[in-house]
Design goal:
By secondary structure, the chain is mainly α. The chain is built from four helices and no strands. It has one domain. InterPro entries: Phage_holin_3_6.
């Protein structure tokens, strides 16, 4: 005699088995999503490091160029003044662009694993609704 069938537990066991399978598939999908987001986060960290190093180097160059422009300001010919200030302005523009890129990369890093957290929150809400 099959007590599971007799007590009506076979439907309950089938639902539990289906829920476990669905949970396993969802966990695998979330793990894949977390792995992909980690790769993206790592690339962003690398970009932040590279742009930070470039910005540091450009800062030194900008300061040297601005110092040179001030020194040139006091020389005798007018062409030296124009050349020095144009050089300083060019380095300042390059430095500002590098700073803008650094800030953009830092903002991108401020929300790591956003998709994974969203998916897990959605799963948690769905689970709470089923309970």
């Amino acid at each position: 005699m099959n007590w599971v069938s007799l007590l009506g537990l076979d439907a309950w066991a089938a639902r539990c088995r289906a829920a476990l399978i669905e949970t396993a598939l969802a966990a695998e999908d979330r793990a894949d999503l977390a792995r992909l987001e980690w790769q993206q986060h790592r690339r962003s960290l690398q970009t932040l490091l590279i742009v930070g190093l470039v910005l540091g180097g450009l800062t030194v160059v900008v300061l040297l160029a601005l110092t040179m422009a001030v020194m040139v300001q006091f020389w005798d010919t007018e062409h030296r003044i124009t050349a020095g200030w144009l050089l300083a302005l060019g380095w300042l523009v390059v430095w500002a662009l590098a700073l803008w890129r650094l800030i953009a990369a830092a903002r991108q890093l401020s929300q790591p694993f956003e998709l994974t957290r969203h998916e897990l929150m959605t799963d948690w809400r769905a689970l709470k609704e089923k309970l």
